[in-house]
Amino acid sequence: MSNLFIQVENGAPIKHPASEDNIFQAYGEIPSSWEPFIRVERPDLVYEVFTSQTATYQKISGVWTDVWAVRAMTSKEKGVKQQQIRDYEFPEGEDARFSKYKAAQAALLLNDART
């Protein structure tokens, strides 16, 4: 995978990151207005919720990156999620006692359904 860069004007990123290959094709070099960028995939959350569905671009330790805004679940939200997981119906033939992996998948599915 090619390195990513993002164009910066007056200390703020503009548009979206581009691959090093695409920038070279367009400019023949990496212009000084383009700075390194590290892509951070949307995390799988367990007991947190997103406060925004999109990442923001922030410069951390000299490198631009995706930052996902999350907050801890309230006690009530956590209780509801735990109950949903307990109530999850496994497909026929699967026993919840032997399927911790499936329970973890259910938690992720429940989280995705709420966002």
Describe this entry's structure for a reader.
- The chain has 115 residues and is α+β, with helices and mostly antiparallel strands.
- It has two domains: 4-71, no CATH class; 73-114.
- Helices cover 31% and strands 30% of the residues.
- The chain contains three helices and seven strands.
- The protein has helices at residues 20-27, 75-87, 100-114, and strands at residues 4-9, 12-19, 34-38, 48-50, 56-60, 63-67, 70-72.
- The chain has a five-stranded mixed β-sheet. A two-stranded antiparallel ribbon has the order 4-7.
- Strand 1 and strand 2 form a beta hairpin.
- Helix 2 crosses helix 3.
- The longest helix is centred in the C-terminal third of the chain and has 15 residues, at 100-114.
- It is elongated and about 60 Å long.
- The two termini are 29 Å apart.
- Residue share in helices? 25-40%
User: How many distinct domains?
Assistant: 2
Radius of gyration: 20 Å
> How many β-strand stretches?
7
Poorly predicted runs are none
Give the termini separation: 29 Å
Helix and strand sequence: EEHEEEEEHH
Number of helices: 3
Write down the overall geometry.
elongated
Strand % is 25-35%
Largest sheet strand order: 2-1-3-6-5
Structural class estimated from helices and strands:
alpha+beta
| Average of per-residue pLDDT values | 86
- Describe the biggest sheet? 5 strands, mixed
